[in-house]
Amino acid sequence: MSPGRKTPSGRRRKARPPRRRTTTRPQFLTVAALLVVASLVGGYMVLNRSDSTTPTASSSGGKGTTGRTNSAADDAERKWDGKTKIIGDGSTSYTGPQKGRLKAEPLKPGEKPPQFVVFSWDGALAGDDGLFEHYREMAKKYDAHMTFFLTGIYLLPKEKRTLYDPPQHEKGAAAISYPTDEHIRTTLAELAEAWKEGNEIGTHFNGHFCGEKGGDDWSVAEWKQEIEEFNSFVENWKTNTGFKDLPALPFDIKAVTGGRAPCLEGQKNLLKAAKDFGYRYDASSGGAYQVWPGKKNGIWDFPLQMLPYNGDFQALSMDFNFLYNQSNGETDGDPAMYPTWQQETIDIYMKGFNRVYYGSRAPMFIGNHFEQWNGGIYMNAVDEVIKNVCTKKDVKCVSFDELADWMDVQKPETLAALRNLDPAQTVDWSTLVK
């Protein structure tokens, strides 16, 4: 994402070109050329398939991390007397275990895994277009949960911007615009309702710095600094905004157990930093094939994925990837092409879904932004995919942390067998799942 001027909708993104990489995986397909790009990011594909099943490390330090929990089961064991516990200045609270979560159970011998689909949103700003509320409503209508990755400075007024001390940049600097007071209020309201409805609130960190002095250049200590800044903005938004009339968020910072780095940059050092904050997963990998995920450094690695595009071409499972390849990165391309591009986007998503739904059942990860690019065709496409897939037999549209719950309770030998499957492989589940 590049710096941009605030628009009336509260959006602030400007396209930047991607870097490209050609890659192959002979086990199941050859990619002659790779159509990639990550979130408004110019990020590129880094293919990595980890088979580590080392348990996620417990929190050992970092601001606001004392007593962090690492799973829904741990959360359920926290002592709670049924009363809301207001925390700190009243910005956050503990209201008990989150309701309506997926019940994670190990597969029985011979049982076919559910088809998990995760819809995730980078930034999670509630702008004038009502998209945050729209996808909350879509989730409720189709019995789905989603992951909303909050950008921390979206809870920080512009006049207080110097409270943000980003790594390798001056205080108050950011590659995106600070929100208006009204957008902070609407974002807080949407975050609260989203969590109460069973959705996940994750982190998209803060200043959205990419390239030079961005995530790839940050040390482990600097990533810890960025996470601490995020935690502070969530835990102290009442003090920072002065909005004493608003209720506390119905969750505390311990509910944030993973995130996606801006531009998909810096995962190596981010993973080392994240352990100190009790993070269970990371969605910052540059991209991978549609295979069952593993762990990196004891943390679940949930990457964006390559989906069938056209012949040997593969497209990354994020709206901006389609934007870049359809309209050369222009957010307002040729309107005459909108119907074609929209259907093409739907078809790509569905091809990727069908490949695993009728094959390996590997989870499908979709990353998006609350944006009306090219007339809103990517939002329309996601709406159609939600309607089409979340209603199918055995499909569970879940958040990343719910998927982590499910992965955590599976037998190591089951996970190892699943990770050896190719996406479209025909599977004899009676022999694979012991």
Keywords:
five-stranded parallel beta sheet; alpha/beta; four-stranded mixed beta sheet; TIM Barrel; 434 residues; single chain; disordered N terminus
Please render the helix and strand layout as text.
Layout: E1 24-25, E2 29-30, E3 34-35, H1 72-77, E4 85-87, E5 92-94, E6 115-123, H2 131-141, E7 147-150, H3 181-196, E8 200-203, H4 220-235, H5 237-241, E9 258-259, H6 267-274, E10 281-282, E11 295-296, E12 299-301, E13 306-310, E14 313-316, H7 319-327, H8 338-357, E15 364-369, H9 377-389, E16 395-397, H10 400-408, H11 412-419, H12 429-432
Parallel strand pairs: 3-14, 6-7, 6-15, 6-16, 7-8, 9-10, 10-12
Antiparallel strand pairs: 1-2, 4-5, 11-12, 13-14
Helix pairs in contact: 4-6, 8-9
CATH class: Alpha Beta
* Average pLDDT metric: 85
Strand content: 5-15%
The CATH topology corresponds to TIM Barrel
Shape: globular
